[in-house]
């Protein structure tokens, strides 16, 4: 006859099936890695293509007759379409648009010129400054 084992103290209790950690699944680890890569690619594409448009930093392809404000540094100006009667500072009226070109000299000497690129479209806005009223 054998003696039964000594009872366990609360600190020494064997783990019950509910308390044992579940073994890691190989499929879920691979799925997490693939999902992480897909998320990174989607974010990169969104930043490259969509972020400037969502934040309003995309160049404006204004039409002749519209008014725009031009702010910021000369090497990276921000252009926004506005109402011509707004009386804002740096307000210009678009006289003509030259598509498929960055040649600012095509606007002549009387007009200001601003070369812009919107996705694959390149264009020059020929601008006449609107005087404050």
Description:
The chain has 133 residues and is α+β, with helices and mostly antiparallel strands. Helices cover 23% and strands 26% of the residues. β4 and β5 (121-129) form a beta hairpin. The longest helix is centred in the first third of the chain and has 30 residues, at 26-55. The termini are far apart. Residues 50-56 have low confidence and may be disordered.
Q: Beta fraction of the residues?
A: 25-35%
Order of helices and strands: HEEEEE
Uncertain runs with pLDDT below 50, 5 residues or more?
Answer: 50-56
DSSP helical segment count: 1
Q: Main attributes?
A:
elongated; 133 residues; 1 helix; single chain; alpha+beta; 5 strands; 23% helix; 26% strand; 5-stranded antiparallel β-sheet
Furnish the topology, listing elements before pairings:
Elements: H1 26-55, E1 67-71, E2 78-82, E3 91-99, E4 112-118, E5 121-129
Antiparallel strand pairs: 1-2, 1-3, 3-5, 4-5
Short description:
This protein has 133 residues and is of the alpha+beta class. It is 23% helix and 26% strand.
């Amino acid at each position: 006859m054998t003696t039964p084992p000594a009872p366990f103290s609360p600190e020494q209790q064997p783990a019950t099936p509910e308390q044992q950690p579940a073994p890691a699944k190989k499929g879920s680890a691979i799925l997490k890695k693939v999902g992480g890569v897909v998320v990174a690619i989607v974010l990169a594409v969104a930043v490259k293509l969509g972020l400037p448009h969502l934040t309003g930093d995309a160049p404006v392809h204004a039409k002749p007759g519209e008014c725009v404000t031009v702010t910021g540094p000369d090497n990276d100006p921000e252009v926004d379409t506005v109402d011509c009667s707004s009386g804002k500072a740096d307000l210009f009226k678009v006289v003509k648009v030259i598509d498929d070109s960055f040649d600012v000299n095509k606007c002549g000497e009387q007009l200001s010129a601003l070369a812009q690129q919107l996705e694959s479209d390149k264009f020059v806005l020929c601008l006449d400054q609107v005087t404050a009223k």
